[in-house]
Amino acid sequence: MSFLVAVRLLISPICAFVCASLLEAVLSAHDTVAQKNFDPVLPPLPDDLDDDVEEESVKIVRLVKNKEPLGATIRRDEVTGAVIVARIMRGGAADRSGLVHVGDELREVNGNLITHKKPEEISQILSQSQGSITLKIIPAVAEEDRLKESRVYLRALFDYMPYEDKATPCQEAGLPFKRGDILQVVSQEDATWWQAKRVGDCNLRAALIPSTQFQERRLRYRMKMASLPLPVSPKAATYDCAEREDCDSEGGLNGKDIVSPKSKAAPVFCGQAFSWDFYSAGLRRSFRVKKDRQGSPGDPHTPDANQSEFLIYEEVTQYLSRPGERPRLIVLIGSLGARLTELKQKVIAENPRRYGLAVPHTTRARKSHEREGVEYHFISKAAFEADIQSGKFIEYGEYKDNLYGTRLESIHRVLDQHKVCLVDVQPEALMALRTTEFKPYVIFVRLRILDSKRKLLGSSSSLSSGITEDDLQEMKMSAERMDECYGHLVDYVLMKEDPVSALAELQLVLERVQVEPQWVPVSWVRS
Q1: For the chain, N or C: smaller number of CB within 10 Å?
Q2: Are residues 127 and 167 in the same domain?
Q3: With the C-alpha atoms ordered 383, 386, 392, 396, is the resulting torsion angle positive or negative?
């Protein structure tokens, strides 16, 4: 007998014994598990239930809560005085449990009767509780069907801090956001407070934001209060505790939110009118927009969630140009000293096949080194004025008795060649360009102004030479005012420190616009 055969005969009995032992252990474990009861163990019902409660359906709910909010708000029923669950926050602990619903009556928290406590006191008890929370609930007579999560996306057009808003039913449940943030609204079943998530946040729990109608109502109230002959304290427009429960009263406003893109009146900053004459002069000292400017071509369209005249929300969706479509128009606006023309020309010079310039028109005489249609289109003053009357100019102005302007035709000529058209305009022209036809991507170039002019754009930069402290203040003021009035129309802010880094950053942004989806007004895609 060979050695290999002997080894096999010896191993075979051992394997059989091991397999039998393992099978016996598995069967024994199965019998042990099968005899156990793994149903959830709920706390027993209290023996001292009131008579009227015994006739009702009582639900004992035990939730496990860590540091996160419970995810529910409550209100006091005006007729019965009962404490009612007002809303369930999507993704919160209460929502995930599936055991608490809108309309449920809350009787006890951890064995403590809360029917005589104020909603603020109950909310504090719930927020301070950790670990297991036991709730005694009288279910709603007819529980509302849970709505499917909506897919409405809004761009915020104002800043919001729930801890500064006395109207919110629960400050801890509010969602803070900044102008420009993209919000996904997951529930609009409450006409006053919507539930939303901020796109990009890792937190899956929804939070409260003021609805468009509610925010507009209190903006109107603040404008009304501001028109009174006596000055009104900002606190006079906020909410007290009584108003917080129903949220139907009007009030609360941050003055910088009152900016209407459709209003023909001068914009309002913090309740005071602002002169556009000074603003235009601060932007371009050598180029003044004429006061008698005719209406721009096209139909200006800056939609928001409800076509409100106030800057509240704008419904948006993601968009990326498909192959064969004309590229999006790139619009540059800039504060005083941003040197947009220089920046724009450098981009085009490095890649003339991909980028093009909307050549402006002028009535001045052509210089010896200039070429028609390259630096300018040279036309007569009579022809220029006729084009103004026909509404062919996006913007125009006068300098040293010569007219200058950008025509709509110049932009179309570049886009029709499937080149990315770069145009820099006064911010007022944004309203005429912000259309479905152009789908503009707006870049705001502003200087990074530090404490000292020697630190402005680097001590060795030619841009810092000859700049006075008054110039720095004017640059800073023009940037702040442009941001305040037109920041809601801006897609990207480029902080210019020096020409080299600014060019590199701009080229990177232009590349992303062509290859990555961007948020645009939903009307640009649906129309």
Answers
A1: N
A2: no
A3: positive
